[in-house]
Specification:
The complex is a heterodimer of chains A (311) and B (245). Chain A has 311 residues and is α/β, with parallel strands linked by helices. Chain A has helices at residues 46-54, 96-105, 113-122, 138-150, 168-183, 195-201, 219-222, 263-273, 287-297, 305-310; strands at residues 2-13, 18-30, 35-40, 61-66, 81-84, 156-160, 187-191, 204-209, 212-218, 226-235, 245-250, 253-259, 276-283, 302-303. Chain A has two domains: 2-223 and 290-310, 3-Layer(aba) Sandwich (Rossmann fold), CATH 3.40.50.300; 226-284, Dna Ligase, domain 1 (2-Layer Sandwich). In chain B, 78% of the residues lie in helices and 0% in strands. The chains are: A alpha/beta (311), B mainly alpha (245). The interface between A and B is medium-sized, with 28 and 20 residues.
């Protein structure tokens, strides 16, 4: 669906035209039907990568293909694409309804009034349909952006920080809508800082750091339990063995981690000391843990075998 | 826009005393002055449209919402420019209608010059809007406006006349000759609002059109369309090279 190979993007900014390398050899592949998340720190290059996929930015070098075509502004391939920008850069003189109709009509075919009203109703915008976008709150503008993405059943959705500015109820409803769209078979590429949200939605993730992909894999593989480490919770009053790490105490309840080779030693210790063991399980990795580990820990790039083959 | 309206109202007030004059000649002169003033404002308005019709979208970065749809830049640019032209045409028709109504109200003959002057103004506004649309696509609108006001055909013509007079007065320095050529070239290259103003100046005074003078309207239209096409192509190329992020 999307293939980016060794993409470099350089900007020149400031009075001395200082060169900024926004992307430094970014390579990734989004497969048909993926719910693909781009994760990274601020300024890592997530939005720049998305701009390249959308043709809003021409790479300085490297290649980008979307649905087998080089993305050029306004090409026919965009009839299958919907895009929700990070900043709501809309035509502020339009009302909510006019904007939804205008963006929908740019796909080149007439949109039934019923579809517009249904979408506005679905997103809770119906009562504000005559309000100018310039008067709308950030969340409402975001909903207008979502409305123009949902009105056509597009094959490929680009969502740049989609839940920014939305209230918790709208976030949950939007999440459900995205799940439905994904079930329908659409490919979704999403940028987000909310890692818990990505864990709930995405099936593939690319972690971008300093303009390049440092990890790219299925979410399930990326978050596979660490088989070398167990997490235990027990009640203890006295001291705990030295081989326990990441020890946290809350009253008498202790949470800690044990290396696999010390698990039987710990069992012996707990039986001998009469510890009340509450939980012992393989340590689960959250996307946040993995992200911190990769970005802060300076881990070597984790690229799935499939992506390697694609290269 | 508010400033323009205020200026138009204040200028309009000047004509109020003249509306009550009894003589037909004075009425005709007033009608011609009002037409001239309104046409001047129409041109200013067209310049404003040209200046902001693209740059407003570029500056608030709303074009990313358009170009990520199956709407090619050439279509969008063309439609934006056509919108400006249609607005200018509507305003021009309103002015023409108003002037015709005023002629009838004052029992003055409705002269064909009214139609000619209005059409000529509309044609000029097409070229002006296209030229400023191009400048504002490439430059900041304020710089574009300054450039259009200062560096125009009239200024280069004045420069050319000055250089010619200095050469005729006996100054044959190489620098002056280069300046003379440069001014001449820039005068020919710079867009002209009314390319046949010398041939049609009598029409603007008498509001009468001779049979063989209508052709200048056609020539002006040809010039204006060629200028617009040139500006459109350069603006399109600039628009496609810009980063809409």
């Amino acid at each position: 669906m999307i293939r980016a190979e060794n993409v470099h993007v350089n900007f020149r900014r400031g009075p001395f035209r200082r060169q900024i390398q926004a992307l430094r050899g970014l390579s990734l592949e989004v497969r048909d039907g993926d719910f693909f998340a781009l994760v990274g720190q601020n300024g890592a290059g997530k939005s720049t990568a998305m701009y390249c996929f959308l043709g809003l930015l021409k790479p300085t070098s490297g290649s980008v293909e979307v649905m087998g075509l080089v993305p050029d502004l306004g090409r026919a391939v965009y009839s299958s694409v919907a895009y929700l920008p990070e900043e709501p850069h809309y035509h502020l003189y339009l009302t909510v309804e006019e904007a939804t109709r205008y963006y929908a009509s740019l796909y080149g075919h007439r949109v039934p009034e019923k579809a517009i009203h249904q979408t506005l109703e679905q997103l809770g915008l119906a009562e504000f349909k005559n309000l100018r976008l310039s008067k709308c709150s950030k969340g409402m503008k975001q909903k207008v952006g979502i409305a123009q993405c949902l009105i056509h059943e597009t094959q490929l959705l680009f969502l740049d920080e989609p839940t920014r500015g939305l209230d918790p109820i709208a976030v949950r409803e939007f999440r459900e809508t995205l799940r439905e769209i994904h079930k329908r078979g659409a490919t979704i590429v999403m940028n987000s800082h909310v890692l818990s949200e990505i864990e709930m939605l995405a099936n593939r993730v690319a972690i971008i750091e300093a303009g390049r992909v440092v990890a790219q894999d299925d979410l399930s593989s990326l978050l596979a339990p660490d088989r070398g480490l167990y997490s235990v919770t027990f009640e203890a009053n006295g001291s705990v063995p030295d081989y326990l790490s990441a020890v946290e105490r809350q009253g008498t309840v202790v949470t800690a981690q044990i290396p696999q080779d010390k698990l039987y030693d710990f069992m012996e210790f707990s039986r001998a000391s009469g510890l009340a063991l509450r939980e012992c399980s393989l340590k689960k990795t959250s996307l946040e843990d993995k992200f911190f580990h990769i970005v802060r820990g300076g881990q070597e790039p984790v690229i799935s075998a499939e992506s390697e083959r694609a290269k | 826009m508010a400033f323009l309206l205020l200026f138009a109202v204040l200028t309009g007030l000047e004509f109020v005393p003249q509306l009550f004059v009894p003589s037909g000649v004075q009425k005709f002169n007033t009608l011609r002055d009002i037409l001239g003033t309104l046409n001047f404002f129409l041109l200013l308005f067209a310049a404003g449209l040209g200046l902001f019709i693209i740059s407003a979208h570029l500056r608030n970065r709303s074009l990313k919402m358009v170009f990520t749809k199956p709407c090619p830049p050439y279509v969008w640019l063309g439609s934006a420019f056509l919108s400006a032209v249609i607005v200018a045409l509507l305003l021009d028709l309103i002015v023409l209608g108003g002037m015709t109504a005023l002629s009838l109200f004052w029992h003055l003959p409705v002269r064909t010059g009214l139609l000619f002057v209005s059409a000529d103004t509309f044609i000029a506004s097409i070229g002006l809007a296209a030229y400023l649309m191009l400048l504002a696509t490439v430059l900041h609108p304020a710089i574009a406006a300054i450039l259009a006001i200062i560096f125009n055909a009239d200024m280069f013509y004045d420069g050319f006349v000055w250089a010619q007079s200095a050469i005729r007065a006996g100054n044959h320095s190489a620098g002056l000759r280069v300046l003379d050529r440069a001014f001449h070239f820039l005068y020919l290259a710079a867009p002209i609002l009314h390319p046949f103003s010398r041939q049609t100046e009598n029409i603007y005074v008498s509001l009468r059109v001779m049979h063989d003078e209508w052709k200048y309207l056609l020539f002006s239209l040809g010039y204006s369309l060629a200028l617009s096409a040139f500006c459109y192509l350069i603006a399109l190329s600039a628009l496609q090279r810009k980063r809409h992020i």
